[in-house]
Amino acid sequence: MQFLNPLALAWALLAIPIVIFYLLKIRRRRLPISTALFWRKIYPVREARSIWERLRHLISLLVQCALLALLVLALAEPIFLWQLRAARRVVLVIDNSASMQATDIAPTRLARAKELGLSVVAGLRFRDELAIVAAGTEPRVVCGFSGHQRTLERALADLPPTDGPTRVADAVALARGLIDQRQVGQIVVISDGCFPDAQPLSTAADIQWWTVSQRSGNLGFTQFQVRRNLVDPIAYEILAEVRNSADETARCRLEIFLNDQIVDVVPLELAAGETWNRVFQQSSAKGGRLRASLDRADALAADNQAWAVLPEQKPQPVLLVGPTNLFVQKVLESHPLVELTVLKQLPARWPADAITVCYRQVPEKIPPGNVLVIDPAGSCDLWQVGDKLTNPLVTRQDRDSPLMAHVRLDNVLMPEARKLVFKTKPQVLAATLDEAPVYAALERPAGKVLVLSVNLDQGDLPLRTAFPIMISNALAWFAGEHGQLRESLATGSVAEVTLPPEMLRAATAAPVRLWPPTGESRALPPGSDKMLVGPLERCGVWSLAPTSADHSDLPGTPAVAVACNLASRQESDLRPAESLLAKTPPTIVAAGLFTRPVWFYLLAAAFLLAVAEWFLYQRRWIS
Amino acid sequence: MELFDSAFLQRLEYLSLVSRRVFRGALLAQRRTMQAGGGIEFADHRPYTVGDDLRYLDWSVYARHEQLLLKRFQEEEDLHVYLLLDCSRSMEFGSPRKFDLARQVAAALAYIALADLDRVSVTAFAGEIVADFPLTRGKNRILSLLKFLESLEPQPGETDLARAAGSFVHRTQRRGLAVVISDMFDPRGYERGLDLLRHRRYEPHLVQIFDPSEAEPSYLGDLELIDVENSDVRQVTVTERALRTYRRLFDDFQTSLARYCRNYGLSCTQSTTHVPFDELILGMMNARALAT
Fold first, then answer.
1. Which of A82, A140, A571, B72 could form a disulfide with B43 if both were Cys (CB 3.0 to 4.6 A apart)?
2. pLDDT for residue A170
3. Nearest by CB to A34, which of B214, B220, B246?
């Protein structure tokens, strides 16, 4: 036996004052009485009693010394060598992925897994250490190696459910790293086994596998996305995919809501294992939150709803300056978001928040804000107009730029264009064979500038579908990210978001926080307009917003909203392999009776001794 | 005289007046002593005890009820009041001391008797008779009696009422009322001493004074109990259980004393030191008045 704290043995010196005080104490208090008439009857035999008295005092001293010895030994923390040798390092891997929220095992698979985890914790012996690794969304150590049962129990109780994917294999790899090849290391995995690698993992030699599931059918969304229509700026398309992960046919109704207003309903009947999908066409300039739901209660609720965010398309005021060109004017008027104003001459004062379209007329200094210049007739502060380009052929265009999305200019007949010499290097969107830019973008601190040097009166560009698409792309580019589509992410993903400038400016006064669909918000690092948020572990709409002025626990107007769906065939399929269900639960080495450190038993013995001493003292059986 | 100050003397005068006017001398004087064979008027019966004069047995009662009862007669005469005061060490106990209260009671009874022209003597005893104030008569003798009482001190040695009573009854003196003022903690038993007084035709009257701490002790733990009368040292560990036994024994002792007095028709007053002497005397008067 060894002592972890041998210096504590010095407390044994307290025995000296105890003996001294004891010797002082046994000098009895002398009490004169008027008569011994009655006491003589109570204590009739003096000799026998005095022997007992001496014995009684000795017992009392022994009891006190024993009490001191127990306490000193407890402080010294004795430990047996076999306890040191037999100490285990156990890693408990608990699957908290989306499928573990299935209610086919009451109350949930995860709750049952926690119960089993608690039994593992309860089976720990003194000097055993256990770490808890969560295997949902992102494998992480939720509690490092510890032998403190209350800490482990609290960590287990606090383990949150997630809607993320199963990452048991990664978690097991992490657990193996934690154990570090120790002979007494153990890995206990508690999972529903609803993932492809479950079978080989469950048979691994170093893993004790515990399956908490049963074969349950489930119907859920495996895809839900929305995008704006390429032609109609206010139209949008919804892609919905539903899979029946069951062994029998399922019937239900699919309902789609925009801002809680129903927009479509579809009855569904899916055969066993069938996947159904459809694209829905709808229109709305206002945008909002799309929610689809299946009106069928099954074991997993997380995939019975899906969300998507449809950004609002705000009206764009546009000022068209220059001689009348019906192609330009009509293509702008046809855009449902454009509020067009037409001027023949350059205005004395430029509007602050409008997109300016200069056709041929070019001011000496390009006004602040977003400006589209078409067929510039003169030079300005950004470029010099050079010679005419005759029959320019577009041989190079920036296919990665959103400005050129769905636009092809290489087959467009353009008899005339103007050569532009830029004073600062532009982003060339389309250039001729001799690298003369015909369509270029400039980004200034005062605003964005697009210049198209093609003469629209000659050639067929206004007659091509590329022209309205170019204008539409240009308007979208001027609008910035506002108005762009943001795809719905799968749970566990990381989203890259860009804060709008006005929110970035207000961030010092009202810091932006990440608001999950449920639960507490998280603060975001200040000072950055672009950031990565996630992994997004819960289904629903996540938003970046400052705290509401009225309620500190509610978000204000969100700047960015990100929809997050389970969208996982693997997680929606709640049917583990039969071999996993048939697998015998592992026998966790029970701790037995001697589960606590020696000092605990010493303290318990000291407590019992103190109780007994108190009992005997109260009855004056000892002093 | 701290023990018998002027306030005390005023209380004595008050008690004397109360004794004569309210209780008509029921306590001591102006009353008929109960002397067997000395009187002519039948008073009552009492159970026969060994040593009683067989001439006073009521044979007619025996014929009817088969009970041996002794006839008692009343006899009017000058009352001789003998105050037997316990001066043992045990009387030093109490708060106030039992001895002080006992002396005050003795003084009060003596004053009442002297005021009624009865004869009074005081005999202090412990293991034996230690001091005497001879028979005296007349109220003017009260001061010298008080001085005698005040000069008394508790004496060493165990209480021995039988020995003191033996010496007392062998004196050549008239029979009368023998008031024993004591705590009655006689290790040899109080019965023998009282029997001696009774058998020698004294009329014993007991005034037992004890301290509440003697009836209800509260000390616990390891103690070295020292009997102040014989210096007997007893090492004990007093437990709650032992205290309960002690209380029961003390109650039994008190009950046996009262039963003894009741059996032999003796007056018995049992009081704690917390009762002032005048209240104790008034209580005695009340009890006496009810009895007569």
1. B72
2. 92
3. B214
Of the partner residues A26, A40, A42, the one whose CB lies closest to the CB of residue B242: A42
Q: Is the ipTM of this complex over 0.95?
A: no
The edge-to-edge listing of strands for the beta sheet with A185-191 is: A140-146, A129-134, A89-94, A185-191, A207-211
- What count of other Cβ atoms lies within 10 Å of the Cβ of residue A13? 11
CA A292 – CA A613 distance, rounded (Å): 72
A28, A35, A41 member nearest B223 (Cβ): A28
Which pLDDT tens digit goes with each residue over B31-60? Answer: 444 444 455 667 678 888 877 788 888 888
Q: What 3 state SS string does B201-220 have?
A: CCEEEEEEEECHHHHCCCCC
CB B185 to CB A42 under 8 A?
no
Check if the beta carbon of residue A166 is closer than 8 Å to that of residue A194.
yes
Tell me the average pLDDT across B9-17. Answer: 84
State how far the alpha carbon of A64 is from the alpha carbons of A13, A28, A78, A622, B224, in Å. Answer: 13, 19, 21, 11, 23
Rounded to two decimals, the pTM is 0.52
For the purposes of burial, counting CB atoms within 10 Å of the CB of A505, is it exposed (0-12), middle (13-18) or buried (19 or more)?
A: exposed
Contact flag A34-B93 (C-beta cutoff 8 Å): yes
Judged by a CB distance cut-off of 8 A, whether residue B212 touches chain A is no
Q: Is pLDDT above 80 for A620?
A: no
pLDDT per residue as tens digits for the range A261-287:
888 999 999 999 999 999 998 888 788
Angstrom CA distances, A361 to A345, A380, A381, A465, A518, stand at: 8, 10, 14, 25, 55
Length reported for chain A: 623
Dist CA A513 CA A509 (whole Å): 12
CB burial class (10 A; 0-12, 13-18, 19+) of residue B191? middle
Q: Which two tokens stand for residue B80?
A: 């001789």
- Is residue B187 within 8 angstroms of chain A, CB to CB? yes
Find the residue in A nearest to B236 (Cα).
Answer: A43
Highest mean pLDDT among A164-168, A456-460, A505-509, B209-213: B209-213
- Where is B86: in which H helix or E strand? strand B80-86
Q: Which of the 8 DSSP states describes residue A159?
A: P
